Amino acid sequence: MIRILHTADLHLDNGFTASNLPYEIIKDRQRDLLTTFDRIIELAREERVDILLISGDLFEHRYIKLNTIHYVNKRLGELNNTKIFILPGNHDPYNVVHFYRTYPWNKNIHIFKDRYEKVPIRKLNLIVHGIGYGYQEESRPLLEQLIIPPTGEINILMLHGTDTTSSPQKQSKYLPFNYEDLLKSGFDYIALGHFHNYKIYKDLYGKIIGAYPGSPEPLGFDELGNHGIILGEISREKNNIDILPLSKRQYYKLDIDITGANGWEEIKITLLEKITPLNPKDNLFKIRLYGSFSWELGETIEFFQNQLKDLAYYIHIQDDTAPEYEGEDLLYNNTLLSSYSIKLQKRLEQEKDERQRKILKKAMTIGANVLRGGKNKI
Ligand SMILES: [Mn+2]
Asked: Which end of the chain has fewer CB within 10 Å, C or N?
């Protein structure tokens, strides 16, 4: 029986460039990745794991700094009773990350190269197999060909790739495989990487045959909820693994219906109720407000966002509301105001473009106010 810690997709030094987050938050998030890496090291030590598997994308090659390499090597080196395996993935391919080839890595670390390779560890009666990336893409379905005969050893495979089982074309630029390939390959455990959410695979008898741990620190709003690492025991007979949440922060997306709310103070209360159980001071939120609601003149979504920014570590508000109408009176009265409202409402119903919708909503508020005899500041 072998005690393992299985992780992947840390993306250390990730740029968070596509995230639209403010600069200070991006800097924080980059530090958070290292904090999570530290937690992984501490856990590996506390749990006395025999092997630590990092199944691809440990680094983000475009932004990787020498300091990060020094740090990672030093911390991994501290685990002197653990053998560490690093698999180059599509974000840190072997031939692109020159540190993989040239850096003097600690001797407890094995880095897989740009092809299939196996590493026996006699005292554990274990063979660790891996298929590293040479460059950013690997579209060959390499697992299809990789079938190992039963031996006396425990066989673990590290693979960074895309499960195409449920996709119609069964193709991917990232080492495509499917459930059948996992089943017939004959490995005792397949330590997957590349998908950023946890997923576990079992054979027809319910034995665990492999898993994606997901990214231990989520990288954006497409990686919601809990994230962590896999900890467990692998043997020839059965595998016992569990996901252990350890991310520094979590991302949440919430949709809130604010129909009938009486001003933004009331919306703020509703919103607080929703986010309070989700540890808002540490976490990131994207809130979509929907329903029918008319913003008071001068109350923009930016103003509202500003009122709320201290409620959470990061909060972004998206306005998906439509202006409310003053009942049948307004819509069926034959007044200038009603025909104006009906016309704009029809255009709003058809308009898909967010910027156009914003303009129409503003036109609705301002126009209605003018026609009621109010004054406008534009
Ligand atoms: Mn990847």
From this structure: C
